[in-house]
Write a structure and sequence with these properties.
Largest sheet: none
Helix content: over 70%
Mean pLDDT: 86
């Protein structure tokens, strides 16, 4: 009896591992396709084919194609954010940091897909929690990066790090949503660097 329970447990663990692997492949394939198409429509059949999966596994693991697109969009954004961190670490001073980070963020290939994900979170309440969970992960990742960078450089911000990172990303993502909604203008019209308050010495009143 004990052997049967052990065997059943092993099969269950293998099944969970296969499920996690399939889920990951679907997310990564979707993120790759969305980046290649710059936010253009991608079909479930194309996603499944790219991931080596079956189309019905999209709904099995994510509930809907829209939910999968949200997961994939934020996976791309988190990958882009890590590349942005490398750019930030290369900055010689706070002014260069603000300028380089702002320029790089506005050029991130994941932004069109993220704009669609944010819009989906607004129009489809069942996706709002998924969007929020990914946003919180982005904020925490950015806050940890900023904290380590400031400690190593002796730099400061004029507001708490949690407010700094949320303000910056809210500004960047809001700008993308405006453009996607049809607002006139270009990245040159936005002072995204001004959303960062990083400086190299504490202010004295």
């Amino acid at each position: 009896m004990e052997n049967k329970r052990t065997e059943a447990g092993s099969k269950s663990a293998r099944s969970r591992d296969r499920g996690r692997a399939t889920r990951r492949r679907l997310i990564e394939a979707t993120a790759r396709l969305c980046e290649e198409r710059s936010g253009a429509e991608v079909s479930v059949a194309e996603i499944a084919n790219a991931a080596g999966a079956f189309p019905n596994q999209v709904t099995y693991y994510f509930g809907s194609k829209d939910s999968l697109l949200v997961h994939a969009a934020f996976l791309g954004l988190l990958h882009d954010a890590r590349r942005i961190e490398r750019i930030g670490r290369q900055a010689p001073d706070p002014a260069a940091f603000r300028r380089n980070i702002a320029r790089a963020v506005l050029a991130m290939p994941s932004l069109p897909s993220v704009a669609q994900a944010l819009a989906a979170g607004v129009s489809k309440p069942e996706l709002a929690l998924v969007v929020d969970r990914h946003l919180q992960l982005l904020f925490r990742q950015s806050e940890r990066f900023m904290g380590r960078l400031l400690d190593s450089r002796g730099w400061r911000t004029r507001r708490p790090l949690s407010v700094e990172t949320r303000t910056f990303w809210s500004t960047a993502l809001g700008a993308v949503l405006l453009v996607r909604a049809g607002a006139n203008g270009t990245a040159a019209d936005l002072d995204l660097a001004g959303a960062l308050t990083v400086h190299d010495a504490p202010e004295h009143g």
